[in-house]
Amino acid sequence: MDPTTQTIAGPGNPLMGGGDVFAGKVIKNLGTFGFIQPDGATDELFVMPKSCKGFNDVLPPIGARVRYELVVDERTLRTRAENVFPESDSVTPGEQPTGTLSGTIQESSAEYGIIAQDHDGSKISCLPGSFQRAFGQSAIPPVGTRVMYDVVVDSQNSGPRVENVQPLDASKVGNGKGGGSNPAPANGTGTLGVVGKVCNGYGFIDQDNGEKIFVLPFSCAAFGNQIPPVGTRVAFDIGPDPKTGKSRAENVRLGMKTGTMGKSGPQFGFINQDNGEGEMFVLPKSCGGELPPVGTRVMFDIVQDQKTGRPRAENVQPEGGWNAPPTAGMGGGGMGGGLGGNMSTSSGTVTQIGPNYGFIQSDANEKVFVLPGSCTTLTGEVGFPPLGTRVSYTMVVDGKTGRPRAESVRPEAVGMAAAQGALDHSGTIQQTGEKYGFILQDDGQKMFVMPISCDVFGRVIPPEGTRVSYRVVMDRKTGRPRAEDVCPEGTAPPTLQPALQTTMPQQQWGTPIGLGPVGGPVGGPVGGPVGGPVGGPVGGPVGGPVGGNGMSEMTGTIIQVGPTYGFIQSDSGEKHFVMPGSCTACTGEVAMPPGTSEQLERGTGMAAPTPNAGLGGLGGLGLDYAGTIQQRGEKYGFIMQDDGQKMFVMPISCASFGSVIPPEGTRVSYRVVLDSKTGRPRAEDVCPEGTAIARKDAPGKAELGCRPL
Question: Does the domain spanning 191-254 belong to CATH 1.10.10.10?
């Protein structure tokens, strides 16, 4: 500490000691200690509450002008402030003004408010009564209002509080002592966005509408004339730059906080804040009377609860805000009025549902609140339609909350139209695991996926490289997007099958109705042919007969198997989905032996073996695989198949070799079955290449043994 800082000659107060007196401003108040910025010096000076005799042994509020003496602390041997008093001699202990400051209303409620102070960005509380004199009423002005005020030390709790709040005069704005130039108060709550980029001397804000806007540091008085960090949610006004004439952000202040509902109960809940500050307590009355379900993304303000004195969330609303209702037919001039006249119909997609409410993503990209009682026409019962359902609706103003919501929700079109719109994403499995994985979407982005969302694959994430279709939902726990109803590309998710059945009979074999072959478009236009054009349209027009009166048969080869599904490559080049239960005619077992040539009968949905050229009377035994023993052991080994893939094999499947896996390098033929324990494919009936094994259950074969092909 430099003792040559500004000195006030002589003792400034009879209560002070006889040493030199210095002046400065309180810049930090941490409750048990603080710091003073001496006038004319750069070093900060340590101060403790017991040294603040002029403030009843309580640290003065930030920004307070003080005078003090210097002493050397006996413990630390460092200089600190002692005998701290208000700078003005006319002030006596009690309620002591500490200077006129400026700031921005950051939080506003009926009982309590918060001002973001210009000089350091810190917050200070205010009460409605402090606004009576200048504003004509005991009410805190709207968020974003610019004010000037005095800070006094409360005589009851010895803490700082705001008094004599006035609208900010632009000529007096600055660092808390006058002489700056900041924008005048703005009307309304301003535009919302997130700080996206901070450079040296300027930055950009990503607005909620997707556009970027330029911002300068001096437009961020609420943050100490510094652009807040990237990711900070802010509210701001838009005005023209006097030099360039282009739009820029003005009067930047903190926007509503964001988070995800972490706990939701009948009487209270908690929000997990995005800023990492922990859980925020919330009451149903702050959410329109009912807490959102766990996982819901929300925006909110923070207020101090009048009963507990602790912070809690207030004005909780869906992230992105409540969708504004149509103005046509709006009675009473706004939100509080009733709805009359002819309301226009909107359309959108159901994106979120819970036990008590949900949301529709409108075609105008707005989030619309909806109650289950408004969806009775979808299924004939009270309840939400499935996620991804296309619906039409009208907007009303809720009589209890005064907020807009969807009413008369109904399918946009019957059957297929309701089912479409859900599987509007496709991609390739990029990473798999037991608990989660990732899909590389066709747009190049990664999408999180869990096994439970892969019902068609037996609740197991399919292998890497598998092409899939899916829809995207918001996870109720994390509030983040993930894939749902993951299916092989070109098939329908189980949740949409009822909708498909409302328009046409269920097809039991081949490509499901309403979905084209792999590589073709998912679904088809309502009233037109369904499916992709590869190999000709599959099925007939919506509502019409499928394939005519005579059901044709098809032939093909099984090219892919899994525990719960497989694919057949038809002779015409199309790829058809198949389930194990449809393959009982292949081997007498409910399984799908890869390589087996099948005859597909669309009328019965059954597969029948087709004599395979080159196998003679052993056709249908599935010995269409060949390879080389690559690895052997006492209990298992591996065959390097001619297609480059490894196939698991056990000694018991090598009867022709004495139930021992043959030596490495041996060329073998075999068929592939699904292991009854693991559900995974393995080699069976392993024979020397060029021979085939005759099974006991094969027609005309009474004993096992390898026979030349």
Answer: no
